[in-house]
Design brief:
The chain is α/β, with parallel strands linked by helices. It is 25% helix and 25% strand. The protein has 9 helices and 18 strands. The strands form 4 sheets. Strands 3, 5, 6, 9, 10, 17 and 18 form a 7-stranded mixed sheet that branches. It has a 6-stranded parallel sheet with strand order 13-12-11-14-15-16, with helices on both faces. The protein is globular. It starts with a strand and ends with a strand. It binds zinc ion. The site of zinc ion has 5 residues, from loops.
């Protein structure tokens, strides 16, 4: 079974054939993975930004889609043949033990869900069943990108109709935040990104204005807002300097929402927090997979939203390191891995 393994931090992943666990244990589900996304969380794991990685070598990936091949004892929420979204947020069902795979007799660790592999043993509570006729490529985005981005707008920032929004970074997460902001009629929705092509693309998803970072950023923003402060600011890059900047730009009655995982410690002036200023770090958009995913599927089926164009690139699992390189360049929208190619 082909898989991409993190053997050493800050090194390319090793693509190799590994053996599945011999037994599917209590609460576990064997899934044939069709599509997987890539997000900042995997880059952080590769770079060990949270500190020493005690689980090496291990599998990666936390958003995907697939078909259930086999269920373990106790599993009730999914059955063989079901199409599923694979997500890192907890949902219904059992939280099982984590699986161990083998490569030439050597143990390969994995978490409750991994998606950079052709097949995965997943904890029941990391799966949500979707209709069989729903596009699996789109479904993979519901594992993290869409649910986190939409959740950051809906649950964390609670953006109101007509509020102004500013987004740092127009990658997969920024695009979803722009899209969700437009669905709740925020205005203006301003995006900041180094790449003009991404700002152009984001305009198809509700972004009303794009800015390439300059020294007089504040002035540029105020030209768009008729001199007013922006009410809700999202930071999706995790760059500590931009996180500080996002907070500074937020007025004392506004909200700063951190969506990116920080790369360093940050320094902020905290006094305004004692009054009305809100600073919040989003944890997966506080999404509830079994409730949010069916809602988004309904909107796709009724043609109210279309996520297909969020995907700008697709790679086979064997080319995963190229996909990671492209992700790091910041030039792509949402990148998808076709795990069966
Ligand atoms: Zn993610």
């Amino acid at each position: 079974m082909k898989s991409a393994i993190l053997v050493k931090n800050n090194k390319p992943l090793i693509v190799a054939d590994i053996e599945l666990p011999k037994k599917i244990n209590y609460g576990q589900v064997l899934v044939k993975v069709f599509f997987s996304g890539i997000c900042g969380a995997q880059i952080n794991e590769i770079e060990a930004v949270k500190g020493e990685d005690k689980f090496l070598p291990h599998l990666l990936g936390h958003e995907g889609s697939g078909i259930v091949e086999k269920i373990g004892p106790g599993v009730t929420t999914v059955k063989e043949g079901d199409h599923v979204v694979m997500h890192w947020r907890k949902s219904l069902g059992i939280q099982s033990s984590t699986p161990t795979y083998l490569l030439k007799g050597k143990k390969i660790n994995a978490g409750w869900v991994t998606t950079f592999n052709e097949k995965a043993v997943v904890s029941e509570n990391r799966l949500t069943v979707i209709p069989k006729n729903f596009d699996l490529r789109t479904a993979a985005l519901f594992g993290c990108a869409v649910t986190s981005g939409f959740g950051a707008v809906n649950n964390d920032a609670k953006v109101k109709i007509g509020q102004s929004v500013l987004i740092f970074g127009m990658g997969g997460m920024g695009l979803n935040i722009a899209y969700a902001s437009s669905l709740v009629s925020a205005y203006p929705i301003i995006g900041i990104d180094l790449h003009k092509s991404k700002l152009m693309m984001a305009k198809k998803f509700g972004l009303t204005h794009g800015i390439i970072p300059t020294k007089n950023l504040d002035k540029k923003i105020r030209e768009i807002t008729d001199g007013k402060d922006v009410e809700v600011i999202f930071e999706t890059t995790g760059n500590s300097k931009l996180m500080e900047r996002a907070y500074e730009l937020t007025p004392n009655d506004g909200k700063t929402i951190y969506v990116g995982v920080p790369n360093k410690k940050i320094s902020i002036y905290s006094l305004p927090l004692a009054f009305d200023k809100v600073l919040k770090a989003s944890h997966g958009g506080s999404s509830i997979p079994n409730k949010d995913i069916p809602r988004y599927i309904k909107l796709v089926e009724k043609k109210k939203v279309n996520f297909k164009k969020l995907i700008t690139h697709e790679f086979s699992l064997s080319k995963i390191n190229n996909a990671i390189k492209l992700f790091r360049s910041g030039k792509a929208g949402k990148i998808i891995i076709n795990t069966q190619r």
